Amino acid sequence: MADDCLFCKIVTGEIPASIVYRDDRIVAFNDINPQAPLHALVVPTRHIATLNALSADDDALVGEVVRRAGIIAKDKGFEAHGYRTVFNTNAAAGQTVFHIHLHLLAGRKFTWPPG
Predict the structure, then answer these.
(1) Which one is catalytic: 47, 81, 99, 101?
(2) Could you confirm whether 99 is annotated as catalytic?
(3) Domain map of the chain by residue range?
(4) pTM of this prediction?
(5) What is the full DSSP assignment across 42-94?
(6) Residue 112 — φ and ψ, nearest 5°?
(7) Is 20 helix (H, G, I), strand (E, B) or coil?
(8) CATH match of 6-106 with 1.10.630.10
(9) What is the pLDDT of residues 32-53, one digit of tens each?
(10) 27-51: b (≥16 Cβ within 10 Å) or e
């Protein structure tokens, strides 16, 4: 855990969040500034700052994060209609919290390319 990381503090319960899913490797919670009717963030419990910091040892963990997003979308009724998953990496791409996280968005029409 990183002492100054907002998401690490959510993972440990130091900061409250609207938890959607939790196990020993992954936590998913609702975004406090939702951009869609469903906007959850799916994070590993272990602190990893950006996708650039991943190693081959993290392949299974990232796969679990992506798979869990799909399960949450299905559980919330968005499997057939569709949903978007996004990882932002570094500030120029929109990453504001430096703990990898997958944005799960659903419940509205999305355009391409994104902004």
Answers:
(1) 101
(2) no
(3) 6-106
(4) 0.95
(5) EEESS---SGGG--GGGHHHHHHHHHHHHHHHHHTT-TTT-EEEEE--SGGGT
(6) -135, 135
(7) strand
(8) no
(9) 999 999 999 999 999 999 999 9
(10) bbbebeeeebebbbbbbbbebbbbe
